[in-house]
């Protein structure tokens, strides 16, 4: 079959959750089918990145991402029944390129990656449509509202989230109705989407990682290192790292003054960068070519997530790296990991700091958690085992 992927970002390099998922899905589809990609790009695509995708595909087309500023999007969404995310990746140029590809390639299936691409589903009428919902976005916004509503300084954000959650619920439900199959990243997400649109047809294709070559770590880090990774302008991550640095890390430093926090990922805000410059115990790196040096420095991986949904690649990557995890229960949502067996669970700042200190003071306990987590990720969350789930979705559609 011919399968056309519509992607909100160029799917390489593998520098964030969107690309980690999209690239592996393309890779999986290419095992049995002819694959084409129509993608947005925020900047010129490097030749090496283009080649990495072309090696899997029969055709790759790239459109410049639209430049819809936050103020313009806010004004637009206030006057519309559509959510902000419906405007972020809307482009008449992309729509024209899609129509051309539909005529020229005649794909059997069009796979739409993420809610911001869902406005292109109606253009693909007459073709089997797969909607891969990376996050249940209305639930993410509702959780953001719940976190922000109790802090007066965050009331504007809470109001925004409340409005967007309602609009997203309607928009996400409509996308589920239009699609011939909806893919969710976890059974929990599939149930949430089914509550929006009971008539939808749902399948679960979990996020996963490449576990080839991974194994238990060698020497322990010589200094207490606490690692957080992720796209640092993504709202759930903004909330997580602010909560960690404001309320958790200071408690840890009372008994572990030499502890260092590594905040790694693209898009750090200016105030976060400044915080790292002022405090020698906080390293804000920005984007890095490889996480390997930071895994080796990490005594504990922290997942202080209070907002969000789906299955977090950061959790799976930490499990595969053999680093013990302290996380909120939300941070490990959608993963078959058990608190106390695969990670230390903590949902308050005090409990979170206590969990970190426990693993720093008793490293053998952390190593036991990490070994069990590594075994779990190898068994359940390796891409080689997940690929058949995607391929079965295509077979069921024919």
Element layout with pairings:
Blueprint: E1 2-7, H1 17-29, E2 34-41, H2 47-54, E3 59-64, H3 70-78, H4 85-88, H5 92-105, E4 109-113, E5 128-132, H6 137-148, H7 155-178, E6 181-184, H8 187-196, E7 202-204, E8 225-229, H9 235-255, E9 260-264, H10 270-278, E10 282-286, H11 292-297, E11 300-303, H12 313-321, E12 325-327, E13 344-345, H13 349-361, H14 363-380, H15 383-397
List keywords for this structure.
alpha/beta; Rossmann fold; 7-stranded parallel sheet
Please tell me about this protein's structure.
This protein is of the alpha/beta class and 398 residues long. The chain folds into two domains: 2-208 and 383-397, Glycogen Phosphorylase B (Rossmann fold); 225-380, Rossmann fold, CATH 3.40.50.2000. It has helices spanning 17-29, 47-54, 70-78, 85-88, 92-105, 137-148, 155-178, 187-196, 235-255, 270-278, 292-297, 313-321, 349-361, 363-380, 383-397; strands at residues 2-7, 34-41, 59-64, 109-113, 128-132, 181-184, 202-204, 225-229, 260-264, 282-286, 300-303, 325-327, 344-345. The protein has a seven-stranded parallel β-sheet, with helices on both faces. Strand 11, helix 12 (313-321) and strand 12 (325-327) form a beta-alpha-beta unit. It is globular.
């Amino acid at each position: 079959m011919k399968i056309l992927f519509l992607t909100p970002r160029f799917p390489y390099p593998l520098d964030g959750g969107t690309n980690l998922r999209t690239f592996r899905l393309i890779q999986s589809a290419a095992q049995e089918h002819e694959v084409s990609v129509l993608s947005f790009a925020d900047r010129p695509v490097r030749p090496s990145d283009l080649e990495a995708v072309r090696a899997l595909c029969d055709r790759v087309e790239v459109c410049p991402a639209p430049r819809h500023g936050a103020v313009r999007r806010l004004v637009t969404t206030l006057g519309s029944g559509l959510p902000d995310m419906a405007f972020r990746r809307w482009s008449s140029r992309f729509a024209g390129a899609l129509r051309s590809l539909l005529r020229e390639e005649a794909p059997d299936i069009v796979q739409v990656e993420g809610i911001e691409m869902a406005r292109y589903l109606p253009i693909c009428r007459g073709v089997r449509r797969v909607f891969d919902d990376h996050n249940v976005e209305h639930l993410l916004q509702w959780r953001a509202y719940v976190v922000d509503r109790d802090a007066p300084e965050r009331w504007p954000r809470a109001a925004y989230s409340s409005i967007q959650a309602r609009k997203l619920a309607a928009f996400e439900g409509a996308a589920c109705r239009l699609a011939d199959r909806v893919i969710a990243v976890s059974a929990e997400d599939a149930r949430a989407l089914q509550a929006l649109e009971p008539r939808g047809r749902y399948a679960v294709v979990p996020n996963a990682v490449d576990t080839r070559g991974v194994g238990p770590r060698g020497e322990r880090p010589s200094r207490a290192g606490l690692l957080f990774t992720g796209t640092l302008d993504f709202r759930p991550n903004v909330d997580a790292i602010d909560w960690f640095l404001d309320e958790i890390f200071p408690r840890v430093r009372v008994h572990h003054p030499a502890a260092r926090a590594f905040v790694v990922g693209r898009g750090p805000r200016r105030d976060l960068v400044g915080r790292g410059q002022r405090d020698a115990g906080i390293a804000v790196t920005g984007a890095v070519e490889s996480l390997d040096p930071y895994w080796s420095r990490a005594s504990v991986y922290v997942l202080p997530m209070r907002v969000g949904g789906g299955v977090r690649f950061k959790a799976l990557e930490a499990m595969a790296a053999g680093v013990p995890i302290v996380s909120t229960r939300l941070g490990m949502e959608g993963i078959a990991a058990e608190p106390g067996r695969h990670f230390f669970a903590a949902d308050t700042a005090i409990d979170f700091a206590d969990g970190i200190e426990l693993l720093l003071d008793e490293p053998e306990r952390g190593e036991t958690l990490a070994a069990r987590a590594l075994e779990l990720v190898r068994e359940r969350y390796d891409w080689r085992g997940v690929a058949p789930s995607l391929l079965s979705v295509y077979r069921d559609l024919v």
